[in-house]
Amino acid sequence: MKILAINPGSTSTKLAIYEDGKQVWAGGAHHDLNEIAHFHQTIDQYEYRKEFIVKRLKDEGIAMDFDAVMGRGGLLCPLKGGVYAVNEKMKHDLLHTKHDHVCNLGAIIADEIAKECGCPAFIADPVVVDEFQLKARVSGVPGIKRESIFHALNQKAVARRYAKSIGKKYEELNLIVVHLGGGISVGAHRKGLVIDVNNALNGEGPISPERAGTVPSEALATLCFSGKYTLNEVKKMLHGKAGLAAYLGTSDMITIEEKAIEGKEPYKTLVAAMDYTVAKEIGAMFVALKGQCDAIILTGGIAYSDYCVADIKEQIEYLCKVVVLPGENEMESLAENAFGALTGELPVLTYTGVSCAEEIPGMAEA
Fold it and tell me: Which residues form a coiled coil (predicted)?
């Protein structure tokens, strides 16, 4: 079986081909920022990105004889985790989503290429996977509901990989999975369902290289009404140009870590603060699992950092076993889900556009 995996990022498009579970080719490129700047919205990049992919495959002499095309999932209606066939409703919702993000292009491009190949197109575990327990939805402010937006693809794939390594099924374990990247998400996985996780898109949870994390609410409200900033400027303070990037002018963790190891300030203190908020969020998810946790898994790009991993582990390893599985693993995760769908190991679900997010009882009357 031959799988094409497509992962559009903010400034890059990653491509990979897998045959019978093994990667046989990987390609893609970083796009010219001046070219991308011409597009008003990321969804307008559709033709540009698709033409790049088709030309890249043609230049490499790769035959368009795929058994499936797997695209990175976008910001759809909240849905349960799993593999979804791309359908017209999904494409419509991606074209009209309230969240403008380049990941919305994944399914649309995958479907067009799949049609040319005569094969199915899938997405798997998009960032809007929502398996919250009801009490996790309450924010404390009527009219504001906590949303489940996180690194679901990597979190779920790493959890399954770990379960398989110890001869168990993902659905048999309770795990805390910590994705450490430009954004950080900490999820409580209870028997195959992520019952609570911080919103890693909008800045909730730990401080990260590019996210503010949870900030003092009254101070934020005062800042918003100070008249000094526009709505978009405030949003950038929370995600994008936030977190370590806001303090240091860079989100490059290699550089930041090097200076922290050397003891340079404010690098050392800021990295310590980030690690501390990650550890606190892990503690919160330990409570969400009622202390019944089989392992804490550290993953994502920052999990390659011995410095950060050691600092985080020191603060949490008394809770339960800590496992380090570094890397984003997005392309491999996409391929694994596609193979699972083709072999029948994983069911292929239908996207309906109906939110799976459970309503809080009595809120309509409040």
Answer: none
